Amino acid sequence: MSTIEELFRKGILALKGLPHPALEAKVLLLHCLSLQEEEFFTSAGKKVSRNKEKKFLSLLKKRKKGLPLAYLTGKKEFWSLSFLVSPGVFIPRPETELLVEKVLELGSKNKGLIVDLGTGCGNVAISLAKELPQARIIATDVSKKALNLARLNASSHGTRNIEFLRGDLFAPLKKMALEKKCDFIVSNPPYLSESDWEEISPEIKKNEPKEALVAGKTGLEVISRIIEEAPAFLKKSGYLLLEIGDRMESRVKSLFGQNYLSKRVYCDLGGLPRLVVAKTR
Q1: Looking at the whole model, is its pTM more than 0.90?
Q2: 247: closest CA among 204, 203, 191?
Q3: Domain 4-65, what fold?
């Protein structure tokens, strides 16, 4: 039987060629052994059972073939919280934490209504629910699979102030007669164009849901719908926050009309335009 350290070294060699082979080998090994990171260093000489070794080697092969790390472990960290993820549901990205950060800056004492359009695994809605337990949060998605996963994540984090509703963008809000009742509407919508999709990495193209990433021919199709329809549901001086692609700042800004009092674009940690925040009249 191999030791933890020996398997770790095998993992690094197996993942050679990937951007972070040591980190990914450790993540997969910890997952297979059900160990915390601090135990990894104190148990380096411990022997690993044949079954767990086989599982680890199998995951290494799948990772080398391009299956995303998050799908192999079944979880992804966001806002220092762990979220269940599965194939067919969009994997949360760290740059989306900027959206949560700005909502908290604008409404740190908020006890009103926050709507998360296209919630996916629920990472944004649940992060906000943890930070703003007095707020009412509604999270929508067209995908039944995504909503089921989001509900599991909400349950595991003990959040009780979120309603998950199935439907396309504002359709569930119309059914609930929420016109002019929302304090915040937030979304990380699909914003890739069809041409962007052709150029994207094979790992994403083969594994993540296209409908969660591609908006249409221009990439603005979903964003423009949200910008146009949001004022009907936002209160006076309510906020719309949208994650955007890093090459569409000027095009997105041009979509805001007279229903909006102001708009501002914020950059992510890489210095790329990533979030637009607009306030209604």
Answers
A1: yes
A2: 191
A3: Helicase, Ruva Protein; domain 3 (1.10.8)
Q: How far apart are CA 198 and CA 169, in angstroms?
A: 26
- The dihedral over CA atoms of 48, 53, 56, 61, expressed in degrees to the nearest 10, equals 150
Dist CA 141 CA 150 (whole Å): 10
Q: Which phi and psi (to 5°) does residue 154 adopt? A: -65, -40
H or E stretch covering 280: strand 273-280
In three-state secondary structure terms, 170 is coil
The question of whether 184 is a catalytic residue gets the answer no
What are the start-end ranges of the H helices in the chain? 4-14, 21-33, 37-42, 50-64, 69-73, 97-106, 123-131, 144-156, 171-175, 194-199, 202-207, 221-229, 249-253
pLDDT at 41: 80
The residue from 56, 90, 164, 184 that is catalytic is 90
90 included as an active-site residue: yes
pLDDT at 108: 62
- CATH 3.40.50.150 domain range(s) in the chain: 75-280
Catalytic-role residue among 68, 110, 188, 233 = 188
Give tens-digit pLDDT for 250-264: 999 999 989 999 999
How many residues appear in the chain? 281
Its CATH architecture, for the domain 75-280, is 3-Layer(aba) Sandwich (3.40)
Residues of the chain with CATH 1.10.8: 4-65
Among 189, 190, 231, 273, the active-site one is: 189
Burial of 45 (C-beta count, 10 Å sphere; 0-12/13-18/19+) = exposed
| Spatial separation of the C-alpha atoms in residues 261 and 148, rounded to whole Å | 37
Among 242, 263, 248, 213, residue whose Cα is nearest residue 98: 242
